[in-house]
Write a structure and sequence with these properties.
Layout: H1 3-20, H2 26-33, E1 48-52, E2 55-59, E3 72-78, H3 83-95, E4 100-103, E5 122-125, E6 132-136, E7 141-145, H4 150-159, E8 162-163, H5 175-181, E9 199-207, E10 215-221, H6 227-230, E11 239-246, E12 248-249, E13 252-261, H7 265-275, E14 280-284, E15 289-298, E16 316-317, H8 318-333, H9 337-353, E17 362-364, H10 365-368, E18 385-386, E19 398-406, H11 410-423, H12 429-432, E20 437-442, E21 455-463, H13 475-488, E22 492-493, H14 513-523, H15 532-537, E23 569-572, E24 583-589, E25 597-604
Helix pairs in contact: 2-9, 7-11, 11-13
Length: about 600
Amino acid sequence: MKSSEKDNKNSLSQRQFCSIMCLKPIPFTFLLLFLGFYVALSTPEDPINCFSHNTNCTITNSYATFPDRTICEAQQVFYPTQEQDILRVVASATRNGKKMKVATRFSHSIPKWVCPEGHNGWLISTKYLNRVMEIDAEKMTARVQSGVTLKQVVEEAAKAGLALPYTPYWWGLTMGGILGTGAHGSSLWGKGSAVHEQVVELRIVTPAPPEHGYAKVHILTEEDQRLNAAKVSLGLLGVISQITLKLEPLFKRSITYVTENDSNLEDQVVAFGQEHEFADIIWYPNQHKAVYRVDDRVPIHTSGNGVYDFVPFRSTPATQLQLLRTTEEVVDFTGDAEGKCLLAKTATNVLMTTAYGLTNNVGFHNHIQASGSCLGSDPNTKIATLCPWDSRIKGEFFHQTAFSIGLSVVKNFIEDVKKLVELEPKAFCGIEMYNGILMRYVKGSSAYLGKQEDGVDFDITYYRSKDPITPRLYEDIIEEVEQIGIFKYGGLPHWGKNRNVAFEGVMNKYKNADKFLKVKDEYDPERLFSSEWTDQVFGLKEGLMISKDGCALEGDYTRYPVEMRWVKSLILVRFRYEDEDEFILRRWVSDNETRARPVAMPVYTIEL
């Protein structure tokens, strides 16, 4: 195609977009302001779909797309309601050499941990393993089935005057899913913010030899070192049937959001987390703002009955979600950086004005520790309202990059990101549309696949195109943040989030990886709960990084070296073929450092 013809084609496409609507940020403001006024809810779609009764099935996540956009199949799905049911299914699968994977009710993990190998594997869903079996007020423990949601645990514990102290912010996760991926909240106090640190007993069903009936229940307590493998297991050891959690007396918290200039963020980040028990920080790099969440326990008699109904987790009318997504697509397609920045400022201003959904700065822990009101259901609804990312409509569609950086080097990482902000400030407006960079505090864990040291978890959400070969606006800058965090600073990826690139060489970052693999081989010697993809993540097989059209755009393929100790310099190249990609040059220089650092160079677009 000639250059002039190509330009005309692009211009026509842009005019066609604008003829549909040249959108302003007003609809986005309208969207956020009215989120709280709709109460008609729609329950999310089941991630498992079968062509006949529980057979010939596909499975996806709650976003309906895995990072590499593959479709995962299964021969059959089972829905156990008790431990004996799990034993029968695992025994049958083991006897017949069937691959197995555990699936959850809402399937919120982004990577494809739930995918069996091939299309003949079996799925074991915890959808109906949903009972809180016992709340022991005297021992201050909760015994639950693995399919119980965080919301259920929080509510049932509160009825007994008890609380699960540290949790993720989204209450739609199941307890088995939380343990499987090491999900966490934010705290450097006590045992830290990970739920798995509160596990005192765990029951797990694994394959077994014929003399043991092909399946076995293992009961793991704190005295058993295998618990350190099972409490963050990625579903690779077997099926967790029951979990016993340590609780605390119910308490109140006080939350105050303090917005400051981000000029000294790198100097404040460690001390702030050490000073406040439930601290976190939301960073808006383009706006040079840091929102500090001052969050601590207060005496139980302190006045206040606040509820935290986080705005982005509220149910939203489908028409508004579609309008927002169309707006986002238009500004990205037309390269309208100013428009994206204006949208971002509008969004953050509304969130700040509404205190992110907090009704009072003091409240009981169970009312403010997590939220997710969009998960409700109303069969009589006349207005379709859903979670913003519900795949049944044209709503949010995004990538999530999340990794933790050790406290000893987190200052350096923030400084590096600030250099990129200085280079291309508008590049960060896209992530500010998704509430900026969430910084949560994590502690080193006893779990073999848990956090290796105290650190800060950086959670970044950003626009993803429905077309895998369409580049994003300022994609190079955001991916440079990802590369710096994951490779230069050795960031540990969140197991339940991220694109494939974040898991490249990941097992080299865990000092007890060999201990986990030893337990894995003991519990599942035939690898029935493993897949080719999980073996690739663990470095047991090659092929995690694939090469196909658009793979670099999707985080599936990387040309930069994981280990750059001896690299003098390197030119990174991505090609542009008729609007499908970009030609980007980045120079990496070692400067006698242990790891190379990126030096920004111009971005060139070359027509081929």
